[in-house]
Specification:
This is Oxysterol-binding protein. It comes from Lasiosphaeria ovina. It is a single chain. This protein is 28% helix and 29% strand. It is α+β, with helices and mostly antiparallel strands. The strands form 3 sheets. Strands 3, 4, 5, 6, 7, 8, 9, 10, 11, 12, 13, 14, 15 and 16 form a 14-stranded antiparallel sheet that branches. A hairpin with a 4-residue loop joins strand 4 (120-130) and strand 5 (135-142). The longest helix is centred in the N-terminal third of the chain and has 27 residues, at 70-96. The two termini are 23 Å apart. Residues 1-16 have low confidence and may be disordered. The structure holds 7-hydroxycholesterol. 7-hydroxycholesterol is lined by residues 32, 35, 37, 41, 47, 50, 53, 88-89, 99-102, 153, 155, 165, 167, 195, 203, 205.
Length: 418
């Protein structure tokens, strides 16, 4: 991975490259994949890997299943969601000094792994389920507690002063209630974001607007995001309130702080500088993340992300842009040929783990969607469908992951041109 300050990197990669990049952004057509970024901004991580950010603290993810009180369970879900934001939106800039442009996944790309820690085993399945428009679906299950997150995500970008990104899609968290045989459902919307620091050559993410979590148990959380220059004057700020659905003024809990730093949870309506109603606290520097376990590249299926992109990643690490272009083209051309072949044979690429729901309207969206402004059809035309995890496919798909070397070579040639 590249290191050093952006100005050092620009010098070593050709001083004009960042300026040219900024000019290309000004005539940006909304297609993030089409942006030709200078080498120091290129990441060798594919967007399919980003699904893992949802559960890098497995115990916090599984915690709601321990909470017998429905309002406190909803608070525990809100707390887990807030703890994921730093991983999702700031981990690259914290690690490398700036946000990076991830690899654009190909249809059928997989990212599989698991976390093993005091919360037991938590499994991750992430699959690129659509290429035009690009959409990634994921399913994360904490085995001992049965807590499961299913979701999918696409991005719509626009340019006005900077790159603005609206996330399309949503997530559904299922939590077995400890006091009954019921499964609670939480519908989670995704925040909008924009890129700051472009002009200085060190882009980072700021969240804006509001996002929501609403539950089948009758509680809703609204999270309002703000950055530097807004109310708190601090970057990555938020305030969140939890209330009975439909009664926004009856605040049961409120949370405020910075999603990259610390936040405090209070009961009732916020009281600044009051310690009496503090019921919780989060300081990411005090809680370590659990490392995701991913199979060694040579044991992965050819469509697994790190194996499929290994040559591109090696070229990025060397800063060899010609090789990056050549290796990416091999994958893109093989994918184009595969789509043409499917079209000629009148079939579609079969998703390994997910299905686009055909029995619209989707029951979760029908029941909870209106509370948080999500349409019954979930903006399906912008994500290639309303994607749901298909348990019946999973066993078969896991079996097929171990292939003979010959079969693996055949798949790599046919689908990735390698
Ligand atoms: C660095 C910049 C100049 C190039 C543009 C890169 C752009 C395509 C990247 C930058 C940040 C990326 C977000 C990322 O912050 C986090 C997430 C959350 C995850 O759950 C789903 C993907 C998403 C929205 C990334 C999409 C691609 C973004 C916008």
């Amino acid at each position: 991975m590249e290191s050093g300050s952006p100005s050092q990197q620009q010098q070593s990669n050709g001083g004009g490259s960042w300026g040219a990049f900024l000019k290309s952004i000004a005539s940006f057509n909304g297609d993030l994949a089409s942006l030709t970024a200078p080498p120091f901004i290129l990441s060798s991580t594919s967007l399919t890997e980003f699904s893992s950010y949802w559960a890098e603290h497995p115990s916090t993810f599984a915690n709601p299943a321990q909470e017998p009180d429905a309002a406190k369970r909803a608070l525990s879900v809100l707390k887990w969601f807030l703890t994921t934001l730093k991983q999702q939106y700031a981990s690259r800039s914290e690690q490398y000094g700036n946000e990076k442009k991830p690899l654009n996944p190909f249809l059928g790309e997989l990212f599989l792994g698991k976390w093993e820690d005091e919360a037991g085993t938590t499994e991750l399945i992430s699959e690129q389920v659509s290429h035009h428009p690009p959409a990634t679906a994921y399913c994360i299950t904490n085995i001992p507690s049965g807590v499961r997150l299913e979701g999918y995500n696409a991005q719509k970008a626009s340019f006005s002063k900077t790159i603005n990104i609206k996330q399309i899609g949503h997530a559904v968290l299922t939590v077995p209630s400890p006091s009954s045989t019921e499964l609670d459902t939480y519908l989670i919307t995704l925040p909008s974001l924009h890129i700051e620091g472009l002009i200085f050559g060190s882009p980072f993410i700021e969240l804006d607007g509001a996002s929501y979590i609403t539950s089948s148990t009758g509680f809703t959380a609204k999270i309002d995001y703000s950055g530097k220059g807004w109310l708190s004057g601090k970057k990555n700020s938020f305030t969140a309130t939890l209330y009975p659905s439909g009664k926004e003024k009856d605040v049961l809990f409120n949370v405020s702080g910075q999603w990259t730093k610390t936040f405090e949870i209070h009961s009732g309506v916020a009281k600044h500088n009051s310690k009496d109603n503090v019921v919780g606290y989060w300081d990411p520097s005090q809680v370590s993340t659990t490392k995701l376990i991913v199979s060694p590249v040579e044991k992965q299926h050819p469509l697994e992300s790190r194996r499929a992109w290994a040559k591109v990643a090696a070229a990025i690490a060397k800063g060899d842009l010609d090789a990056v272009g050549q290796e990416k083209s091999k994958i893109e051309n093989a994918q184009r040929e595969m789509r043409a072949k499917e079209k000629a044979e009148g079939r579609n690429w079969e998703r390994r783990y997910f299905n686009a729901r055909s029995d619209a309207p989707d029951p979760v969206l029908s029941k909870l969607g209106p509370i948080v402004g999500l349409a019954e059809h979930g903006d399906a035309e912008k994500t290639g469908g309303v994607w749901r995890f298909d348990l019946t496919k999973t066993e078969k798909a896991h079996e097929q992951l171990s292939l003979t070397d010959d079969d693996a070579r055949k798949i790599a040639k046919e689908l990735l041109g390698q």
